[in-house]
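Continuing the batch. This is chain 6 of the set; chains 1 through 5 are on the previous pages. Same settings as before, nothing changed between runs. Recording input and output for traceability.
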Amino acid sequence: MPMRKALGLWLIIMIFGMTVSTGMSSNYVVAVTTGDPYEAFWDILNKEAELVVGVENGNLSLVSDLIQNSRLGAENAANISALIWQALEELEASGIKTYYTAEELQEMAQNISENGLPQETVDALKEQGWTDEQIQALEEYIVQNGANITEDFNMTAFLKDFSVAFVEVGFKYNHYEAWALEKWKWSQPAEAPTANNGELINPVLADSWAQFYHAYAVSDYVRMEEFIKSLRDSTYNFLTYQKRFVSLTFLCNRSVITKTGTLDHVNWSDNGSMVFTTLVTSPTDGGFILNTTTYYWPSALQAYELISNIMTLVKARNYGNNNSEVQWILNQKVSELRNALKVIIVSTGTSTVYVSDEPVYPIEPIDPIYPIEPELPVLLVSTTSPEESSTPELSESTTSITPADEITLLALDPNNEEGRLVVDSVDVEVVEVTLDYVTYKVVVYLHVEDNAVSNVNAEFQGTELSDSQYVGFLYPDDSLVVESTVSGKVYGSGQVTVSGTVKITYTPSSGPTPNSVELASEEREITKSYSKTITLEDDVDPSKIYVSIATYDENGDGTVTADEDVTFKVVVRNENSNADVSGVCWINVVYPISSNERGNRTFSVSVNAPAGGSDVETFGSVHYAWSGTFMYTGKCSLDQYTKSFDGYVTVVTDTSPMNPSNSLFSVELIAYPTELEGGGEVYLQVKAWNYDGSLIPVMGYIEIDGDRRSIDAKIPADESGDSLLTFTYNVIGVGNHTFKLFLDNQDGEPNGIGEEHWSEVTVEVKTGDQLKQVTSECDPLYFKYNMGNYEATLTCRLTIYNGYDYDLKVTGDIVSDIDVSILNKYLQLQAGSSSPVVSYIDPTTIPTGGYSTITSIAHFKISKPDILVIGDIFPYWEDAWNDIQVEGIYGAMVPVEIIHDVPFDKLGIQRFTLQSSVYIEVDHIAVVADLATDAYLTYKLGSKVMPVANIKFIKDALTRLPPEVREKINPIIEQISINWLANWIKERAITWWRG
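Output for chain 6:
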């Protein structure tokens, strides 16, 4: 019997279609069995399975197809979820009986075995395309299994759960879509940074998020669907780095500030996180400020999956699923998304471009100018300072400021927290095992984030298990283990599988705790499934395994005081006389970061307790810097059995705390990542602590593989572990690379003079197993003078590592495309090429385990406009405008992106993307000399344009030429003015001097 047909009709036949003929003529049958959604369900599911296998096997060309199919599957599941709910509503409205006892179900099955299916049911099945053979097979199935019916059946409850189950199917499709993105973009994630300089909602997505949140706050599902789709599209473009120019939205002093900017750099890092940099140009007195901000987004991939889940829920509601649980799940997902959209500021930086609107005024008369001697420009004095120069070509960011309403504040304020319950895991703990049955209980590990929660209730439904546990009120940062009652006996032979779901509902609180009673929003629901296969014939009795935690304070007096370490150990006692037990134990410890902030540390150890013996293993130590009571939770997985535990550590205030250091200062060098595959960019950070309370000048160096970089800095009086310096370094070469920091407060040399401090960190470069881009860099752009134009050459390098076990050969030309933001207009085509960038690779054959570098060269020219009739325009005004253009971009950091398509013999065309920023420099001496000379020529030559042909010695020379030659040359000579000639001499001299 085809499963797709059984899906729609099985419940009707089995429960009420056998006895109630009116039910078969209702719209329920049509709602459940007809239409494309059910046929499409199987088609989409089959295709999803094929695509997942293909991507898993490394065929990333299928990623886009998998993403598209996953989206179709999620929408299809939302549609079917709504159809099931609508069918339930029609059932309830029809008055059909929906609750049957086990005895009634057995009676129905007996009736079918004696008389066959009711004729009304047979007719309905045939209308849906069933054959006589399929109907006969169904009858036989019911007859054979009727005796196995042992439980009551609630059709209403079942269809409610079934409607939610299809929402969960949509979530599964969304998970595979996120998984496809992870395979594509997170194939070689970098190590995530550790800096934390403040949180905010991701500014690239904040506007779309706020729009959705407004619709969510008023339960406008139509607009919710519109805005969540917009948010998903924006997030997809963000994660795949397909959109460079973005709108950035910030919340500041109860106002919403929106700026246009550039997504300058993106790096995919560990655990689905991202590091990205934005560039914003803002006006200031006398110029522009270029603001760069680097953010760390810990939950980038999780946020994308949550957005898709919210879209599934909203679509289910819009299709007609009015199940209240859908709304509760939506509330939870929106809360989780709000948290997942938070980013952390890693670093900020600014550079300034100055502007001048003042005209160039004539200088006092001096002697007439003669052909310029090469040394003359060194005596020229500029009539304007570099600080007054500008470029009208540098566009500034547009900014809008609007007051934030209360909903926007709730959406965008990272500190306006609601309580959020988090389910860490759900486990099955076996209680009793015999030869023919088992009993078990379900254990849920929870913790609370951001604020308090109330009305916490856990409902357990599963194999021989139905239970509910009310928890009530929980404080922020509380951890808790919730256990179900012990299940009934689950019978089987050899092995049995138990499964089910846990639904946790709660109400979040907002505002101060613990006295908060105002509800932040409606009820929320978290649904988790569980499943475990248990072997019946086992020598181990789980009731004879005992797990406990022992804690040891640092000084051994039994009292944990603030600023003391606590060591955690696990004790596994095995009282089974004939069987050893082994496995892994985990513990999650909550500890204080500050007086009002907590963190978590997780440890795991392997354990092996012999028969009749014990095993004691050390998890590790945790530092408790502040007083209070702090929870820990954990579990041991021992073969097929799990044992959970929880407890707390009470920390009291130390009455005589010790000074943390007798030094004036201390420093620490931090590198991330500390492990690289093939090589890559390492972020280095120098942290400092000032114990003196006054500004401390320090000097020294960082030594990197023997290469020294000098440091000269000052440690602020209030520095306490903050970042003193940050920079990056490209590391290649398999092996360990050591970074050594030395700083003192005297002479910067390790000679025993002054207070000296060392810090060292090692970065390991491991061998890889594929072709990987490991480093990229660009040289600064230096604009030099050339006959009135300013020209520069950009050189960038991208290094590739070959991790394959065979050599790779480049078989053709590299095709490159370049984007340099505001400098694109000045790019020049390369000789013999249709592209402004030319790239080559050296060596062209990359040995296994070796490196090759792609070098790209692009030329820039800021040139004055072509002048057809030279005598009609003062050419030196064109020069002056040119000078202002080039001076205006001096000091800017400009994003560079170069995309390379490289053909390899064994891999085909592979794409690499260089992303960097370049610093623009300008020959200021040439600018000053050019501007000053132009000012002089303006004064001396005035507005009168005298053709060169009017000069007497030129006239005499022309008359001596043959008439046919004079006729050709004379029109050209008449176009050349003395003004142009003087300007040409000036350009030639400056080019000779500065070119």
